[in-house]
Amino acid sequence: MKTMTTMFLCLITMLLIASAYSNSVRLHMTHRDTLSPQHTPYHRIEDIMGMDLKRHSAISQKIKTSKSGGRMPLGSGFDWNAAQYFSEITVGTPAKKFRVVVDTGSELTWVNCRFQGKGRESREAFRADESSTFKTVGCMTKTCKFDLRRLFSLAICPTPQSPCSYDYRYTDGSRSQGVFGMDTFTVGLTNGSVTTIPDTLIGCSSDSKGDSLSVSDGILGLAYSDNSFTTKATSIFGNKFSYCLVDHTAHKNISNYLVFGTNPASATKSPAKRTTQLDLNILPPFYTVNVVGISIGDTMLNIPPQVWDVRQRGGTLLDSGSSLTFMVEPAYRAVVTGLERHLVGVKRVKVEGLPMEYCYDTSKYDDRKLPQLAFHFKGGARFEPYRKSYLISTADPRIRCLGFVSTGAKGPNVIGNIMQHEFLWEFDLAASTMTFSPSTCR
């Protein structure tokens, strides 16, 4: 996520999978949230929370591919001790795969790279010099000087032939430095074949720093931006993309897909399917939704309307790069107080290193006592996440916490990936709508 980005904690395999359906492309997507040998259970949660808090602090050429769309595997990062979802991108000629964080708040897609003798020697590095389709963006070009300025292109141009450089910084202190280039991506099609997407912007990062990048080869930027991978892919496969996030504690053998074009799974006439408007131009490059209120059970919470108003430093974003759900203080206090009333008698605990305020020993708690929480969108649509999405598991099976964090007086509110899991989310960029429905993501 550009100003709000951070926390890039790994992705799993984006295997190019075929399907008998048409009109979509998809990538496998997994969540990255497991315990590594170097981390204690609570260190993992502490790291996730730290990255989440920092993340919030700042918050074409068409090719003919018949009528099929594209897809990439998408899964949880649990087995990499990461709080993000990952996919695999295939770049260059000859093509090489890289595990990347799927981030709807980031504009730039980049990978660890070695170019003209600079960069990493590791196996995961993309050797741009060896790709016959890689070409740099020149530092004297309009693309560098104007189009890519928002992506931190640097005003360094020793010669007219020098590449356009960038220094992409994230709010957790992570950074990625390199040069902008164009290369060919290879994606699987839902009709069982594969296709290439030529002349796609990619960051060739010779240097990247930050704990949040340690298990990732790079970032897949899916924000709403002229320079994002989303814009390129949807210009080819249709103006839609979608994803279904498996449970954030799922292992790497459980995954779903990131789909560009119409998702076959969205064709069902589920009565639970809901559609709401997207405000794509109000807080670019983020996906802004019109929340107008939150209810717990049958009670609408008393939350000031300015909390949801972007013009008053409010508003709400849907973000795959944040794990927890962030709320401006009046909304946060109303939600946690409302839920706490239904946890009376359950032992509240303080876990060292865990910034969430409300944690409980729920070993003897009946989840059916916790009422349904619902986000109410303008137009009448309601999003009713699973109880396990807001009373979330920790490394200790006895302890669960309310998965909300206060942002203080500053917005916007952010619906994170744990709240989103086990729902199918489809973004229609042409109609400026978002459709969602419960799904097993299997």
TrEMBL record:
Short name of any one Pfam family annotated for the protein: TAXi_N
Residues annotated as catalytic: 103, 319
Example of a GO biological process term: proteolysis
Domain Peptidase A1: 85-437
Keywords, ordered alphabetically: Aspartyl protease, Glycoprotein, Hydrolase, Protease, Signal
Entry's Gene Ontology molecular function annotations: aspartic-type endopeptidase activity
Signal sequence extent: 1-22
Family that this chain belongs to: Belongs to the peptidase A1 family.
Protein's recorded name: Peptidase A1 domain-containing protein
Species assigned in the record: Eruca vesicaria subsp. sativa
